[in-house]
Write a structure and sequence with these properties.
The protein is of the alpha/beta class and about 350 residues long. The protein is about 55% helix and about 15% strand.
Length: about 350
């Protein structure tokens, strides 16, 4: 049998599909493997190039196969899809992966370490709990409004609504009181878990030199800095800061036809979590720029001719490029050095 040089591996829960070719592009192996047979199969091969679609378990298999001496390349599934010839089968997907991984213009995803995945799991859990807290607060407000208890928005409004409920609860039905007490208790439990997770993220941030450097950029705090560092194991995979911003979906989406090119809103592709954190941080910077009347700052100048929301997205784009430059060049942020 000819020596296998490139393999496309289609991951699954139980049955994996392998498609391997030799140096001439001839198919050498095309077979399904059960989960327990995967490492044994690749341990018996000479080191080769393995392509995998970036998915939930891809980083785990990337680390395991790299330990066996193979070169593993992860690819976004959207970039592999055009190479699928016909139909949706595991064999067709594995063949498409094998073809895509050999393309010179293909973009790859760096394999994350266990530590980086652990930090990202903290971020995802925090994001989930924050959304659950918002749901509980909205439900609490809605139910209280049915009994005429209304409060202002924000954390202070929630506290005022709970105080008003305690003051008027003797006049409410017993079943309603039980339901509302359950929501209040749930909100406090979720809030307590969010605080615990944020403390763990802050501890990791303080022990990471790269994360501390990013936190020096206006609009980036420990949460955003740690998320960026954990999500970007190798910043050199991006050719420039604009490529990194495009990966976050912060660059304009182009539409061209008949030789005419038009730029519309941002693409909103890529990592929505980091994009949202950067936009929130940029919004905070803009508010400070307005209060301080910093007419010489980049954001304040743009605010004189553009809407605030557009400026916040533009500033998030600029912040993402600065963050990439600091990571790729191992530098520290200097205020005013890149002012334009």
């Amino acid at each position: 049998m000819n020596e296998i040089v490139t393999i496309g591996l289609d991951l699954a829960k139980n049955i994996f599909q392998v498609h391997g070719i030799d140096a001439c592009g001839q198919v050498v192996v095309r077979k399904p493997l059960r989960r327990g047979e995967v490492l044994k199969f690749f341990a018996g091969l000479h080191p080769c190039l393995i392509g995998i679609e970036a998915c939930a378990t891809a980083h785990h298999w990337g680390r395991e196969l790299s330990k066996l001496g193979h070169t593993v390349r992860l690819m976004p599934p959207a970039y592999v899809k055009p190479y699928v010839k016909r139909g949706k089968t595991d064999a067709a997907d594995a063949e498409a992966i094998c073809e895509a991984v050999t393309r010179p213009t293909m973009r790859f995803v760096a394999v994350k370490s266990i530590e980086q995945q652990g930090v990202l799991m903290l971020h995802k859990t925090r994001d989930l709990l924050v959304r659950q807290r918002t749901m509980v607060i909205n439900a609490l407000r809605g139910h209280l409004a049915e009994f005429g208890i209304i409060a202002a928005q924000g954390a202070a409004g929630v506290k005022a609504a709970i105080e008003a409920f305690h003051a008027a609860q003797d006049n409410l039905p017993t079943l309603a009181r039980r339901a509302l007490h359950g929501l209040i208790n749930q909100m406090r439990v979720v809030a307590s878990e969010i605080v615990k997770i944020e403390e763990q993220i802050l501890t990791w941030h303080r022990n990471s030199a790269a994360s501390r450097r990013l936190a020096g950029i206006p609009g980036i705090g420990p949460i955003t800095a740690s998320a960026i560092v954990a999500a970007i194991p190798d910043p050199t995979l991006f050719s420039s800061g604009r490529s990194f911003a495009a990966w976050l979906g912060l660059t304009p989406r182009s539409h061209s036809s008949g030789g005419k090119e038009k730029l519309v809103g941002i693409s909103k592709r890529g990592d929505s979590y980091i994009r949202r954190l950067l936009v929130i941080g940029a919004t905070a910077v803009i508010r400070r720029a307005r209060q301080d009347n910093a007419s010489k700052s980049w954001a304040a100048k743009l605010l004189t001719r553009k809407p605030a929301r557009l400026v916040s997205v533009a500033l998030a784009n600029k912040t993402a490029r600065i963050a990439w430059a600091l990571l790729a060049r191992n530098q520290t942020y200097i205020a005013g050095a890149g002012a334009a």
